[in-house]
Amino acid sequence: MPQYSTTMSRQEGVARDTIAFHIEKPAAFRHQPGQAIDVVLSRAGAGDAQELRHAFSIVSAPGEPQIVFATRMRASEFKRALGALRPGSRLTISGPFGSMTLHPDGQRPAALIAGGIGITPFMSMLRWARSERTARSFLLLYSNRSPQDSAFLDELRQLEHSLPAFRLMATMTDIGSSTAWDGPTGMIDAAMLRKAVGSRQSPIYYVAGPPSMVTAMRGVLESLGVVSDDVRSEEFYGY
Ligand SMILES: Cc1cc2nc3c(=O)[nH]c(=O)nc-3n(C[C@H](O)[C@H](O)[C@H](O)COP(=O)(O)OP(=O)(O)OC[C@H]3O[C@@H](n4cnc5c(N)ncnc54)[C@H](O)[C@@H]3O)c2cc1C
C-alpha cells in the first residue's frame, strides 16, 4: 500500500468530543469516496519501530485540496497522540484502501445507514455527489444518541438543499428530556428502514457504525429480503 509523509493543517470540533483532522494532501494521493487511510504516528520518544497505527474513513471528497478524517476523542494512547498534533506536525498515512465504494451503476439508489461517527465515509460520498452534480439517488439514515453527538448534521441539512436526489432521515436514541429535538427518535429498525426507502427500486445498502449496529442492520436487511450482494460494509473495530 502506498505510504506518504504529510503535515497536520488543523483540527476542527464537529460534535461533542469529536474532532475532524485536516491534513495536507500528497500530490500523488487519489481516493474513491468510501475509502479509508491508516494514520501512522510515532510513539512519544521512540523510533519508527514503535509506531501507532489506526484506520479512518476519509471524510473529504476526492476533489478537495486536503484530506479530512474524523473520530470521537477517547482516552486511548493513539487518540492522545493524535490530539497532541499541532499545525505543521508531521505524520504518515498509508492507503487509500477499502471496497465500500459506490456501485458502478449510478441508476441504483444508495441507501446509507450511519451510526454515530460511522457517518465519515458517507460524507465523502455526498460531498463527491455535490461536486459532481450527480443525479444518483441517495438516502441517509443517521442515528446518534443526541444532536450534540451528530457530526456534520448542519452540513447534511444543507446538502439536502443542494442535492435534489438526496434525503436525510436523522434519528436520536438517547435525548432524555432536556434536549430540543422534534425529529424521529429510537434506533433504526425494519419499520423505519422500510418507510424511509419507500418506493426506491433496488437500492444498494451501505452500513457504517458501531459493530453491534452493523450486525443488527445486516439482520434487519436480511429480514426485509435484501440479498447480501446488495449490502456493503467493512469491519472497523477498536474505536
Ligand atoms: C465502514 C465503517 C467506517 C468507519 N469509519 C470510522 C471513522 O472514520 N472514524 C471513527 O472514529 N470510527 C469509524 N468507524 C467506527 C465506528 O463507527 C464506531 O465504532 C462507532 O461509531 C462508535 O462510536 P459512536 O460514539 O459514534 O457510536 P454510539 O454513539 O455508541 O452509537 C451510534 C448510534 O448507533 C446506535 N446503535 C448502536 N447499536 C445499535 C443497534 N444494535 N441497532 C441500531 N442502532 C444501534 C446508537 O443507538 C446510536 O444512535 C467506522 C465503522 C465502519 C463500519
Account of the 3D structure:
The chain is α/β, with parallel strands linked by helices and 239 residues long. It has two domains: 3-96, Elongation Factor Tu (Ef-tu), domain 3; 110-232, Nucleotide-binding domain of ferredoxin-NADP reductase (FNR) module (Rossmann fold, 3-Layer(aba) Sandwich), CATH 3.40.50.80. 21% of the residues lie in helices and 32% in strands. The chain is built from five helices and eleven strands. The chain has helices at residues 77-83, 120-132, 153-162, 190-197, 211-223; strands spanning 3-15, 18-24, 36-42, 51-57, 66-72, 90-97, 110-115, 138-144, 166-172, 204-208, 231-232. The strands form two sheets. The chain has a six-stranded antiparallel beta sheet, covered by helices on one side. A five-stranded parallel beta sheet has the order 9-8-7-10-11, with helices on both faces. Helix 3 links the parallel strand 8 (138-144) and strand 9. It is globular, with a radius of gyration of 18 Å. The model has no long low-confidence stretch (mean pLDDT 94). It binds flavin-adenine dinucleotide. Flavin-adenine dinucleotide (FAD) binds next to strand 4, strand 5, helix 2, strand 8 and helix 5.
Structure summary:
By secondary structure, this protein is of the alpha/beta class. The protein contains five helices and eleven strands; from the N terminus they run E-E-E-E-E-H-E-E-H-E-H-E-H-E-H-E. It is globular, with a radius of gyration of 18 Å.
Bound molecules: flavin-adenine dinucleotide
Largest sheet: 6 strands, antiparallel
**Briefly, what CATH class of the largest domain?**
Alpha Beta
- Along the chain, the helix and strand elements come as EEEEEHEEHEHEHEHE
Strand order of the largest sheet: 4-3-6-1-2-5
Secondary structure category: alpha/beta
